Amino acid sequence: MNKTAFVFPGQGSQHVGMGTQLLAPRPDLVDSRYRPADDVLGIPLSTLCWEGPAEALRDTAITQPAVFLTSVATWDVLRDQGIAPDVVAGHSLGEYAALVCAGVLDWTDALRLVRRRGELMAAVNESVPGSMAAVIGLRIDDVERICARVRAETGRIVEVANDNEPGQAVVSGEADAVERVGTEARAGGALKVLSLAVGAPFHCGLMAGIEAEFATELDRVTFAEPVLPVVSSVTADLVTSAAEAKSCLARQLTGRVRWTEAVQRMRSQGVDRLVEVGPGRVLGGLGRRIAPELRIRSTHDERRLAATLADFTTDADAVGAALPQEV
Asked: Whole-model pTM?
């Protein structure tokens, strides 16, 4: 059906210099997005995006608004070229940018939410040290069984946090339990187990303690009805109302990221082109492995952004050539 999905990245896609490729053709973004974001949060977020240092960008409370801001600014560039999606989705944190794109959230409200979300998540790690690890080469049900066995034997929290693609699951929980799951996964035939450099054990029961406080933050914000289809990463289904969008954001804290299912859901909606809007190229790689027939486009750097813009121009020209020309 030739539909385009905009997908917005989550934590882990940050890098020093992100967003700088947008500023040469669009210096107005400094005044329309970056400086207002600095003022809203009271921190030099724009400078941290452009200049780092990398250590600061690894702080969850900085990472989350920085990735969000870069994603929204990138969306501006596409939108102002007349490029619009048929459906949107975001990987965990990226769902906030997707909801801005769909008209559900005001961008400054979303910016404040992701900042607070990052602060609360980082605080969890200070009280109960946790970790995350990617298990590559095992079926997700096998990883779930290993987690269940480790929980039963140790009494520790460890869960599947992300179903990123077939054969790649991320586990999250208390550090010693995550390490044990990794050991058992290797013994069970996993090709790799990679520790992830993240600021907190996301998407597991350790985050339950901040749910009530974050729910209060969500209650302060106005949610509007979506103006285009949104696929939630926590349900892998369409978000059909403002109330459902709010519920999905609340459920994200402890809920699994169902990215494999989310991409498959978009594919079932007729999506054949996936545009990663924001920093990094993680989602493009996942999409290519989940649904190899998808056309994948990126906005990660100047070359890829230019190629993405040209791709839509080529499509428009092709459509125009097929239509009767005005005389």
From this structure: 0.94
